[in-house]
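Quick log. Single chain, no ligands specified.
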Amino acid sequence: MEELNKNQIVLLVLLVSFVTSIATGIVTVTLMDQAPPAVTQTINRIVERTVEKIVPGQAPPPIVREVPVIVTEEELIVKVINSATPGVVRVLGGQTDKDKTFLSSGFFVSPNGVLVADNAAILAATSTTNYQAALAGGQTVSLTRLESPPNFIFFKLVDPSSVEAKWSALTLAKTPISIGQTVVSLGFSDRPDINVSVGIVSSFLSTDASTTPLVMTNAASAENQGGPVMSIKGEVVGLSKGLGLAVPIETIATALAALKQ
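-> predicted structure:
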């Protein structure tokens, strides 16, 4: 070995590496032939996914990289407010068309012009026989009073075709809300400007064993009583009763289905 020069040593190393590679290949092929079919199929799939086939004269496929888009909760809340506002109304009542006072917030739950509102102030105004809805765009339309289940009341547009601006029926949630869930409540008081409150679902309150429990949330206030309580997905999960309580949307959806409007 001492008599070999550098070139001869390099050639010797290359020869040994070549012989070793041949021997390794022979052993690998022999083991592959003796391996169970399941192992062989697995190795073949790995090789197929690892080796990229290049067709001469054909450009390689473009590399697509997915870039995650981060959407903050604040952005989701703003989106909910903007999309839901056209479906929220001010319910007005009086004895004549000119004698109108604010009674409750409300929101559309059907493309046929059915809306729901809180029944407390409406039922208290016993002399009221004439109802109207002030839409988000400023238009005022006549309403017909329908049924009043516990905790809320239904109205319907007298002539939906007379509404110049399209109203927006809000999307009702299909699944119940959970404690800790973020909610957004929209509504009106005695001003035409919409009020917004953000909070969480803190608990459920059972007032009667035979009825669905009310939702307890700090998003429900006197400023949005009768308005929708929304999830940050943009779905209605309840109706604000004010004072930290809301009617779950399941109760309203069941009554709406029975109404057949």
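DSSP finds five helices and twelve strands in the chain.
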